[in-house]
Amino acid sequence: MGCRSLFEIKGVFPKGKQGYGYFNLNMEKAPNIALYGHLKLEKIKHIALVHKPVRGKESYAIAFITTDKEVLFKVYLGRDEHQQLFPQQVIKFNQLKNKEILC
């Protein structure tokens, strides 16, 4: 089943912490971060780091896959005003994929 909707938020991805069976994002509601909420951890079976072309452009995403093997959502690396990937994000993505860093 493919992704049915797409939302774009430009900005910093919030920090979070576990509590009550959820991963809680931005619970202090930092003023410079638009995203906050709760991710039900028991619904997530895998987190995949995906690097593939999308519409002819190099693309990087972190995909959250459910226990039903469906993609719940993806977080894509950002692009600048010229549609170029932010190099520092690509470096961090590859470090995470190669397990050089933990978050």
From TrEMBL:
Pfam families for the chain: ChuX_HutX (PF06228)
Lineage top rank: taxon: Bacteria
Protein's UniProt name: ChuX/HutX family heme-like substrate-binding protein
Protein species of origin: Gallibacterium anatis
